[in-house]
Amino acid sequence: MSGNTEWRLRARPRGEVTRADFEVLSAARPVPGAGEALVRNIYLFVPPSMRLWMDEKESYLPPQPLGEVMAGITLGVVEASNHPSLPVGTYVNCMGGCQQWHVAPAERLQPVTPHAGVPLAAYRTVLDVQGLTAYCGLTEICQPRAGETLVVTAAAGSVGSLVCQIGKKLGLRVVGVAGGREKCDWLLEACGVDAVIDYKAGGVGERLDQACPDGIDMLFENVGGPVMDLVLDRVNRRARIALCGLVSSYNGGGTQRTSALMQLVNKSARMEGFLLTDHYGRYAEVTRKLEEWILDGGIRYQIDILDGLDQLPEAMGRVFHGRNRGAQLLRLSQEERT
Ligand SMILES: NC(=O)c1ccc[n+]([C@@H]2O[C@H](COP(=O)([O-])OP(=O)(O)OC[C@H]3O[C@@H](n4cnc5c(N)ncnc54)[C@H](OP(=O)(O)O)[C@@H]3O)[C@@H](O)[C@H]2O)c1
């Protein structure tokens, strides 16, 4: 790993991401300047929203410029440093990109202090963006009250499974919607949800009626499309819908039925989109709480790791076809210092 392998976005994907959308270059390992550190990327997180960054249209980030190293959410280790706050060996979270090495000023590198009982990879996923999104989306946007019914889509995923378990801790009736029997069983057995709906098996409307006999007070929406419509058809008066993401539309397309949206009017319901960055002020408090829950076994999670940058298109395919089991990561190098 003396040089730097860089994945640059060559073309804007049409539909699903393919290897042909990238140019892979061998470059020299970058050298840190004054106040900077050299970081060896260990984990690259491959969230569904990475697909949105590749579009020409601005999402919550500016469009990824063509011909430049693809942006990427990473966890790495400092291997050379020109800043006293970042000694060699410090683990850091950063936007290190789809490459092996990364140089950044100290203020763009967030030190990570892993707890002995928690895998390092958790600090870039459940104890970072995914945890903050789940916790703040549920508690602040849905504003739950014990005894109410919460439906979660992509419920076995990284964000969704945390939402389900936090919902149970808050005394909610939690109904998880996921693709396939295996994911549904995991939600019941490991995450302790009250009911599951395998949307791939069909009959979602009837299953919602059975699972939510008192109607639906909250929806934590990760997917969008027809299942979301069926949930909206069944919301109670003053329901709260946290719009976290619409993963079914990220590769293009996606529609919502107008009569389902009309339920927001019919039921004086509130749908509110949010970004985890709106809640960064609570980062330390929320991740500490989640770490405690993970250490005492009160929160279960999955992390799905593939080896090597070459697996980037496969990782994206897994996320959009539901083959991932929890947060999808690529391992770019070993955790131990070189
Ligand atoms: N607002 C924010 O700040 C914020 C932050 C982080 C994440 N998010 C959003 O949170 C959601 C979940 O993200 P995550 O990282 O936790 O991913 P994830 O749930 O671990 O993985 C994505 C899952 O979505 C489901 N899915 C993918 N394509 C689908 C389709 N066409 N139709 C139905 N289901 C589909 C699959 O689950 P099944 O096998 O069950 O279908 C897949 O496993 C995404 O919408 C993401 O954009 C938002």
TrEMBL record:
Keywords, sorted A to Z: Oxidoreductase
Keyword Protein biosynthesis: no
Entry's Gene Ontology molecular function annotations: oxidoreductase activity, acting on the CH-CH group of donors, NAD or NADP as acceptor
Pfam families, per the entry: ADH_N_2, ADH_zinc_N
Domain Oxidoreductase N-terminal: 6-112
Highest taxon of the lineage: Bacteria
Gene3D superfamilies according to UniProt: Medium-chain alcohol dehydrogenases, catalytic domain (3.90.180.10), NAD(P)-binding Rossmann-like Domain (3.40.50.720)
Keyword flag Oxidoreductase: yes
Alcohol dehydrogenase-like C-terminal domain span: 159-290
PANTHER family, A to Z: PROSTAGLANDIN REDUCTASE, PROSTAGLANDIN REDUCTASE 1
Protein name, per record: Zinc-binding dehydrogenase
Source species: Pseudoduganella namucuonensis
